[in-house]
Amino acid sequence: MRKKLMTVVMASTMAAAMIPGAAFAEDSGDKPTITFMVPEYNAGKSLNNEGSDQVVQKYEDYTGIHAEITWADNGAYNEILGTTLMDVDNMPMIITAQGALTGTIVSAADEGAFWDLTDLIDQYPNLSTIDESVRKGLSVNGQVIGLPRSRELGRYGLSYRKDWAEKVGITEDPQTPDEVYDMLYKFTYGDPDGNGVDDTYGMEMTKYTGPFDIVQTWFGCGNGWVEQDGKLIPVHQTAEYKEALDWLRKVYADGLMRSDWATIDTSEWSNGCKKGEDGVYIDVMDGGRRIWDYFVQNDVKSVVNPDETATMRLQGPVNGHTLATSGYNGFYVITVDGAKTEEDVANCLTFLDKLNDYDMRLMADYGIEGISYDLNEDGNIVMREIATENMPQLGLNQMVTYTPLDMTFPVEKNERDLALTECYEERTRAAAITNPAIGYMASSKVYSDYGSDLDEIISTARTQYICGTIDEAGLQAAWDDWADRGGNDLIDEINELYQADLAASGEAESETAAE
Question: Where is average pLDDT lowest: 4-8, 50-54, 348-352, 377-381?
């Protein structure tokens, strides 16, 4: 039976005696201990750099909580998550889940694996700012089970190496998929680095398939689901989706991305662009900006002017479209088998809430004064030229909900900062395509029962088709299998929820008009 908190101890620091059966690390002192599973994106360097011990000491002293962190390899994170959820005897109190709600999480929630946080969020000043639509998207059976890692809605898009483009004669942003293909082709076969060796690819790609989701929106197929003729349908049932897959299949067949991309670990993501092996990066725009940071920090020279540093163009949408985030990128659940008491839950929430306070967010984003940044005479933050992977706070941002999202700091903005702000404000926000079904998936019984398998069928078939291991008949067979194994039932259920929501909205509007 799912547990629900009725009372909560709100103190930020609790004595060990208040938490029966809690385990403490030797260096925890009298601080309560929480356990936390977090994805590792940084090849073992997260909170393991010079100065990281100071970061840990500062956030533990500030929150009054000792955190034992398990860093789980991001490249195998979904598998690790599934295994972790079955190991009830070694369950972390807080588990990071990636992306939006998946069938795995929904099924676990149905089994009572997570604490219901509905009545707790508003008791914490920072967590209380979580948007209602995001709460709905992280609810299962009407209960909020996740705390978001809040993100810019229009965060995804295309970035490319600008000096490479100039080298091969491209002077304008590619506005259509055909123009992107032309750029990829020239970046692969046009010797964009000028070394006379066939050693470059157009498109950066690892086993992380998020770029495919972004590319699909360029063709107008929508984000996950799309509304057509008053009905919500999954995007793989649209003609535009197939058009996008054919484009990606041609990119692969023509050698414009690595043939072994599906075997390259996600921890290598963006390294190809940093090393001058790839020229186009399709993911979050701040990821493209970090590649640019790398060029500056490592004095990577422009291939057209060795007196200048290489740059990334943060373009954003193509064809007027890009993928919207859900308003968050991953979320945190508090497990019943890990956080066994109300005090445990209060400790977890206190930790997550306090990491959003100004000083903690400052440290998560910029590190420690005197190590990673200095203050100029105007009191503005000036970052030192330290490689991102060597920052003392590396990895801490993976534990921050970023609520409220719009916290600002006195930062002396450089060219890269201004380019990212321009991209968000002038291009990606307006072009970001949202998923109209995101609020219904978590309430779907079919998705709870079969969602993981259904998602896997579509994802696997997409990869196989792009790589040429199945043809159109094989792709259609996979889609038919999806429909027969619960997909048609899922469409029916999602539309029942959708129509009920529309009806309720109509009634509310009528009542407002009557008043």
Answer: 4-8
Q: How does pLDDT run across 112-138, given as a tens digit for each residue?
A: 999 999 999 999 999 999 988 788 889
Residue 408 and residue 380 in contact, taking contact as beta carbons nearer than 8 Å: no
C-alpha distances in Å from residue 120, one per residue of 6, 273, 330, 346: 9, 43, 20, 9
- Cβ distance 263 to 208 under 8 Å? no
Nearest Cα to Cα of residue 11 among 64, 88, 67, 82: 64
Question: 14 burial class (0-12, 13-18, 19+ CB within 10 angstroms)?
Answer: buried
pLDDT tens for each residue of 83-122: 999 999 999 999 999 987 877 888 899 899 999 999 999 9
Instruction: Please enumerate, as own/partner, the contacts of 458-466 that have beta carbons within 8 Å and a separation of 24 or more.
Output: 458/234, 458/236, 458/482, 459/209, 462/209, 462/212, 462/236, 462/245, 463/209, 463/262, 465/245, 465/249, 466/212, 466/245, 466/248, 466/249, 466/252
Cβ contacts of 430 within 8 Å, gap of 6 or more: 154
380 is written with which tokens? Answer: 């503005």
pLDDT at 422 over 70: yes
Report d(CA 515, CA 511) in Å as an integer.
6
Q: Find out whether 309 and 187 touch, Cβ atoms under 8 Å.
A: no
**Paired tokens of 80:** 């690790």
- Measured CA to CA, the distance from residue 17 to residue 341 in angstroms comes to 13
Gap between the Cα atoms of 347 and 97, Å rounded: 19
Copy the structure tokens of residue 27. 């260096």
pTM across the whole model: 0.71
CB 382 within 8 A of CB 412: yes
For 90-155, list the strands marked E by DSSP.
Answer: 94-97, 139-140, 143-144, 147-150
Return the pLDDT at 6: 31
Count of CA atoms in the C-beta half-sphere (13 A) of 167: 25
Angle CA 21–27–33, to nearest 5: 35
Written as six digits, the tokens of 116 are 């219901």
Residue 209 and residue 205: Cα distance in Å, rounded?
Answer: 8
* CA-based end-to-end distance of the chain: 42
